[in-house]
UniProtKB/TrEMBL annotation:
InterPro entries tied to this protein: Ald_DH/histidinol_DH, Ald_DH_C, Ald_DH_CS_CYS, Ald_DH_CS_GLU, Ald_DH_N, Aldehyde_DH_dom, SuccinylGlu_semiald_DH_AstD
Organism: Glacieibacterium frigidum
UniProt similarity note: Belongs to the aldehyde dehydrogenase family.
Gene name per UniProt: astD
The EC number(s) this enzyme carries: 1.2.1.71
Enzyme class: oxidoreductase
Keyword NAD: yes
Coiled-coil annotated spans: none
GO biological process, one term: L-arginine catabolic process
Domain (Aldehyde dehydrogenase): residue spans on this chain: 8-441
Any Pfam family hit: Aldedh
Protein name: Succinylglutamate-semialdehyde dehydrogenase
NCBIfam families, A to Z: arg_catab_astD (TIGR03240), PRK09457.1 (NF006992)
Length: 466
């Protein structure tokens, strides 16, 4: 194999899941560019029929699709089945969103017909992440195709098999050639795609890569750039009545998907009832099953994506300990595999904590004396994706909602609970004000406002010589 070949490994077994060469960016973009005029001219009804055909293929292939995601990411099989269901459900949600947010509107102003329509941008690149390698890029792709764009999709280099499977589903659905093209590759391929002859780029991934893309696009304001990134997300627990329920919400927020959700809780902010809350949380952590995707009984969480991710998390955990963090539950690694136990560390006394996203099962505890300090701590971040409050009354939540800077704000629910029929995005380093999910319809097309009459009629009343 050449140095440009990709190999995807099962994080639990080390077995090869997929291997193949890096793709040709120029050829993929050229194919998408050639297919764009005809696709943009198809009727919306035709495009809806195509995405519904894709939905049917996904539903028919749900079992092997979920098994492949589980093998390539290590996520439990129960969870990957929900991801595939989300891929199929995205079609109906996107059709509804397109009609509501980008549909045609006709009215009248001054006796003249006024019409609002939307046009596709053209060729859009989609860069997918590894944590939800089907659902998250699909959240860009389906709205983009409905709007009349053609798409060049580069999956994460860690999950190429899932990307190839999803494109196979589009091919099997009868989508015209070139409307969606696949280009596999690593960081170099991603940078090449971002710099190619695109009309826009839709990205889900790390803040570091997102910032690099923003710099790359700084001199091309005519190209749309939608960034969906991570967060150093706070979860405040205050006057929680049912501490067992609170503990369950905390564990779900921090450790679902082995902590590899961009909306996962990274900082647990506790008030006067902190000791009682932690007693429940640690008891629940001790019951969590960590294992391989198809183990029985099914695990709550699997591994992180690979050994490098595990190494980074362990290094971050060790650094917090060296600076005075109190270990409540260790971030323990099972042999050489990237299977980590859920880590919990009290960093209240750690000065100058880094404002970074630990993308894995690592939760930091911070104790505060009052709710003013809790809000201040929640907002002590450059990120702003999700934030949660467990406990309190409606008045306290109202204050929390108004004073917290985040795009997803939940009350008595996990921080990583988000509905596909709502906008999804954040502020600060978490995004560039291009929320996805239901609002993806906004960035995959641009509005065209028209004043129209069936016949020419006009006079000039002032400023002409007789």
């Amino acid at each position: 194999m050449s140095g440009s070949d990709l190999i995807s490994l099962d994080p639990c077994t080390g077995e090869t899941v997929w291997e193949g060469p890096a793709g040709d960016v120029a050829a993929a973009v050229a194919a998408a560019r050639a297919a764009f005029p005809a696709w943009a001219r198809t009727s919306l009804d035709e495009r809806i029929a195509h995405v519904r055909a894709f939905q049917k293929v996904v539903q028919d292939r749900a079992e092997p699709f979920a098994r492949l995601i589980a093998r390539e990411t290590g996520k439990p099989f129960w969870e990957t089945k929900t991801e595939v269901a989300s891929v199929a459900a995205k079609v109906d949600i996107s059709i509804q969103a397109q009609a509501e947010r980008a549909g045609q509107r006709t009215g009248e102003v001054g006796g003249v017909r006024q019409t609002l329509r939307h046009k596709p941008h053209g060729v859009l690149g989609v860069l997918g992440p590894y944590n939800f390698p089907a659902h998250l890029p699909n959240g860009h792709i389906v709205p983009a195709l409905l709007a009349g764009n053609t798409v060049v999709f580069k999956p994460s280099e860690l999950t190429p098999a899932v990307g190839a499977f999803m494109i196979d589903c589009w091919v099997a659905s009868g989508l015209p050639e070139g409307v969606i093209t696949l280009v596999q590759g690593g960081g170099d391929t991603g940078r090449a795609l971002a710099g190619a002859d695109l009309d826009g780029l839709l990205f889900t991934g790390s803040p570091h890569t997102g910032a690099a893309l923003a710099r790359q696009f700084a001199e091309t304001p005519h190209r749309i750039l939608a960034l969906e990134m991570g967060g150093n997300n706070p979860l405040i627990v205050w006057d929680a009545g049912d501490l067992d329920a609170a503990a369950a919400l905390i564990v779900q927020s921090a450790y679902l998907s082995a902590g590899q959700r961009c909306t996962g809780a990274r900082r647990l902010i506790l008030g006067p009832d902190g000791d009682a809350v932690l007693d429940r949380v640690t008891a629940l952590i001790d019951r969590i099953i960590v294992g391989a995707p198809f183990d029985e009984p099914q695990p709550f969480m699997g591994p992180v994506i690979d050994g490098r991710a595990a190494d980074r998390l362990q290094a971050g955990f060790s650094d917090l300990i060296s600076r005075g963090g109190e270990v409540l539950r260790p971030l323990f690694r099972h042999d050489q595999r990237p299977l980590l136990t859920p880590g919990l560390i009290d960093v209240t006394r750690v000065a100058g904590r880094a404002d970074e996203e630990f993308f894995g099962p690592l939760l930091q505890v911070i104790r505060v004396p009052d709710f003013d300090a809790a809000i201040a701590e929640a907002n002590a971040t450059r990120f702003g994706l999700s934030a949660g409050l467990i406990g309190g009354d409606a008045a306290l939540y109202d204050r929390f909602w108004h004073e917290t800077r985040a795009g997803v704000v939940n009350w008595n629910r996990p921080t990583n609970g988000a509905a596909s029929n709502a906008p999804f995005g954040g502020v600060g380093l978490s995004g560039n004000h291009r929320p996805s999910a239901y609002y993806a319809a906004d960035y995959v097309a641009f509005p065209v406002a028209s004043l129209e009459a069936d016949a020419a009629a006009g006079t000039i009343a002032t400023g002409l010589r007789g």
